[in-house]
Each structure stands twice: as structure tokens, then as C-alpha cells.
Amino acid sequence: MFAATRATTFAAKRAFSTSATNLSKVAVLGAAGGIGQPLSLLLKENPHVTHLSLYDIVNTPGVAADLSHINTNSKVTGHTAANNGLEEALKDAHVVVIPAGVPRKPGMTRDDLFNTNASIVKGLAEAAAKHCPKAHILIISNPVNSTVPIFAEALKKAGVFDPKRLYGVTTLDVVRASRFVAEIKNKDPKDVKVTVVGGHSGVTIVPLLSQTGLDFTKEELDALTHRIQFGGDEVVKAKDGTGSATLSMAFAGARFANSVLEATVGGKKGVVEPTFVQSPVFADKGVDYFSTLVELGPNGAEKIHGLGEISEYEQKLIDAALPELKKNITKGEEF
Ligand code: NAD
Ligand code: LMR
Predict the structure, then answer these.
(1) What is the pTM of this model?
(2) Which residues form the Lactate/malate dehydrogenase C-terminal domain (predicted)?
(3) Is residue 33 in contact with ligand 2, taking CB distance under 6 Å?
(4) Which tops the pLDDT comparison, 23 or 250?
């Protein structure tokens, strides 16, 4: 009994000292926006974060002052473009999360955001290449299928591209899929894991429902697949011109950022998440970025998994996704 108590106390101390020495700076770019604010709130609660550095072109001093009163163990700073704000925000960052850019309105596709968001993302990539070339970069800004290649090209141009450290955040598709499947199967979503592969827009989003261990009728498969692929449209329509998913995205972004932190500084093993990375899975078909399950480790995206066993139904979805993805990726690379 005594020995067990001592062992527990020791393990608890060791866990505390590991996390205490591995705390780290996380920068959020676009931090005053619809996603940026709740995402920053959730990151303020993350025990791996020592310094939460908030950058936006407007309003970050207020957001930072507000969050800085929360009694968790991280410092919060707010930066705008004035006084080398972007450099200050990025310097020594271990993780950079990017929800900067405009959201959709009803009737728009994510690709319609390209013209505005491509330049925003490119500018942020050039700054990250200069001020935090070793950071893990998590891209939320749409269209993700193109903004990730845009970011990669800017890092390559600066000679600092590490494909293990650049991630398109597709976690919202995974979160939605889990919720939507749980709803129709009357389950707790925490017991429903759905791997979603491909990209992050319409037909490029491919849920692998055959791998959930659940049975679906053809009608259920059609309805769920459509809802997962076009879940973003539901929110855009409901928000009626005022934006797209922000709160669920903040939840998903904070979850993915936590996975990266746990694997890179928390010493956790076996962290596996779908994410849109430079990938060999369909490189032979000219699709250089693809989301599959990726094992995260101290250096980032360390092991990219294949699709695993998929159904004929899912193969058709993949066949439909690849040409669209290739088009989106090329558009980003050529920007
Ligand atoms: P928003 O307009 O509410 O916020 C965006 C913020 O970015 C604003 O505060 C704006 O000032 C800031 N910004 C603009 N240019 C900037 C720059 N150069 N540097 C820093 N900040 C800058 O929009 P939102 O609802 O937060 O959405 C942001 C982006 O995230 C959109 O492109 C949206 O489509 C995308 N999104 C992606 C997912 C996903 O699953 N990956 C989900 C939801 C939304
Ligand atoms: C989403 O999936 O909710 C986001 O990509 C935002 C959008 O434009 O739908």
C-alpha cells in the first residue's frame, strides 16, 4: 500500500516536471477573428502552452488583455502590424496556428476565397520562414487544399520547408463525422471514431465509414457522406451571410493543436490524427498533399499511414476526390 502510494507520488511528480520543462510558445495568427478568439480561449487552458502570442491586423491588444486574466499558467501577448508585431508574435514560436483570412458567405465555394486568402497566407508564410523556421504550422485558412501548398512553396523558396511540420487542419471533418454518425446510431460521439481522408472541401472530403466497425444501409451511407462532405455549408447557410463555422472549428483546432503539442513536447506516444500534409499516398497520381491518418512524434508528422482497407463505395469517392484535389493543389503551388 505504502509502496503503491510512493510510486504514484513519484509518477505524478515526474509527469509534472516533464510537462513543466516542456512548455512552449504558441502563436495564433488571425487571433481576433471568429475562430481566433474561441481558439485562443481554448489554448489558454492548454497546460503545454507557456506563452500564447496573439496576432491580428486589428483588436488583438483587447483580446490578449481579456484572456490574460484567466488564471492558467501561460503568459498572453497581443500584437498588431505596428512595432514589428508579426515578428514579435512569431519569434521562438513552437506552434503557429493560422485562422487568418475571410470566411465564406452563402453561395460561395471555399475556392472562391482563394483570391483574398492566398495573399494573406503567403505573407504569413514568408514571415514564419524568417522568424520561426522550425515551428509546427497548422493551417486553418481556406481553401485548405490550396493554402497548404501556398505555404509550402513560400517555405521552400526560403529554404526552410520541413514537410513534417506543415499541417492542413482537417479535424473539423473528423469531429463532424463522429457527431453525425453518433446521432443516427444513438451513440456517444466519444465512442465513434471516423477516419476522414482526402482534402477539406466538398467531394475531396472522404469519410471511411467502413472502418468504423458499424453497419450502414446504402441510404445511411449516402446521407452521412453527403452531410460530412457538405457540413460546412450547413453552418454557412444558418449564419446567413455573417460567416462560417467558428466555434466548432475552434474546438477542432484546439484539439489538433493539443495533439501536436502532446506529441512534440509532451512526450506522448501513439498520437495519430488525420491531417493534410505532403504525402506519398497518391503522389504517383500527381496529388502531392493528402490527408490520411498521420502518426505525430517529437519531430511532427513522422509516419503517414495509407488508406487501409476501404470499400468499393469509398474507392469511388476517392476517384472523384483526386482530380479536384490535384486542381486545388496545383493552383496553390502556382500562386
Ligand atoms: P473572421 O473574418 O471572423 O476572422 C479572420 C481574422 O483574420 C480577422 O480577425 C482578420 O482581421 C484576420 N486577418 C485578415 N488578414 C490578416 C493578416 N494578414 N494577418 C493576420 N490576421 C489577418 O473569419 P473566421 O470565421 O475566423 O475564418 C477564418 C478562416 O478560417 C476562413 O478562411 C475560413 O474559411 C477558415 N475556416 C477553416 C476551417 C477548416 O476546417 N479548416 C473551418 C472554418 C473556417
Ligand atoms: C467548414 O468546413 O466549416 C469550413 O471550411 C468553413 C466553410 O467555409 O465551410
Answers:
(1) 0.94
(2) 170-335
(3) no
(4) 250
